[in-house]
Amino acid sequence: MIGFNEVSRLRFICAFCFFISLHMYVKVSLMGVVIPPLMPGIFAVLMLLLNRVNPNKNLIVLYAGMIVVAISSMVFSPGLEQYAGELVKGVAYYVYSITIAVIVFHELSSWTGKSLSSLFLTLISVFIVGLMLENYTILRGVSELFRQEIIIYDLYDADQRDMDMVGMIRPKFFSSEPSFVALSVLLYMTAWFIVTDVKYRVLVYSILSVVFFLLIRSPVLLLLFVNMLIVALFIHGDEKRIRQSKKYSLVLFVGVVACSLLFYFFHDRLNSIVSLDDPSFLIRVVVPILISKYVFTEYPFFGIGIGGYDILEYQIKSVFESLNIVLTFDSKIIASKLVNVFWVHWISLGLVGGFAVISLWLHFLKKINLFRFRYLFSLIVIVVGFSQVMGGYNGVRFWCFLMTVMSVTWVRRNMEAKYMLRLIY
């Protein structure tokens, strides 16, 4: 299954370990300060050392530009004097995260589609077996012990709610919470589907999606069906292997499956969302929108700065109280109350910084020949989907997810270009 002809065994193993460590996301405390996950950084450095290809100069421009914007957000932050330490720490964490993400793009973009497909299919296989073992064997106890002794921070404690809402304790699979499992699966499945050349890939992807949904039962996995539609109709759309009638059949099939799963497993939660009684929905969607409205009014141009969340402590508390969300607040973890990357982007950078970063990304996509509607639209939908279910704007996970999707899309585009050249010559 693993094609080592294109990628060395050691590089393959490093990439595999990197994604596993990114899933586990183990943080450590140094003198009372929680520092970013170190293992993804270690494996990223190993990948960089093993890759003998020179970095893309456009990637370096993007990286440098994002750092300049991050530092500017700190300099122009309204809380620079009072929260200088938090802002410096936030920017340092951000730079660490995008450094790893840039290395991920540099590494994966040098792989072939076959090697990438093998990597993500291996990860998918490991997760299917692991989740089955956790759900039905004593592996759950091993996973829980790992969480309690190694992960320690931000441990999920809503098992009873899961039992009431979905009829089972959702697996954490050596991570802090079930949503991290769902996010990892979402990334692996999306990346594999983009680069794979399996003949019946839509059918295989659909079956795997349903299997994962039954094993994890997370609403996050509904994005699997959204991503499948986007990739099949746009990224794969120009291959002319899918006739127009089949495209409409695909849309109908995916819509029926997704709606069926949604209403069967989450009808109680849907009722809570509609009545604005679901805390998770309020925290992920409503709270960030309300805080963004405040920031656009008070700090429209440069936002609060990356890591300057303590500036908004009073506003966040007020919003939570107005929505009747009962939580214990601590100014040191106030950032965890803003868990929607899309809105935190604008909250942190404001309109000037926010659009500056978007301009940098658009310039980068143009330079690597992904500035075409079918690629651009697909990437926007996939990345915005990720951003709606992820927290930690300056965290490693989001930026690595973004760069992974970007790199496999670029590889896919090159695969299609080579295919067209073979047809011509």
Structure in words:
The protein has 425 residues and is mostly helical. It has one domain. It has helices at residues 9-24, 39-50, 57-75, 84-108, 113-136, 139-151, 159-166, 178-195, 201-216, 223-235, 244-274, 279-298, 313-322, 341-367, 373-388, 396-424; strands spanning 28-30, 33-35. It has a two-stranded antiparallel sheet with strand order 1-2. The chain is globular, with a radius of gyration of 21 Å. The model is unreliable at 1-5 (pLDDT under 50).
For the sheet with most strands, the description reads: 2 strands, antiparallel
Shape: globular
Q: Structural class of the helices, strands and pairings?
A: mainly alpha
What order do the SSEs take from the amino end to the carboxyl end, as H and E? HEEHHHHHHHHHHHHHHH
The termini sit apart by 30 Å
Query: What is the helical fraction, as a range of percent?
Result: 55-70%
Q: Count of DSSP helices?
A: 16
Question: Can you summarize this structure?
Answer:
By secondary structure, the protein is mainly α. Helices cover 70% and strands 1% of the residues.
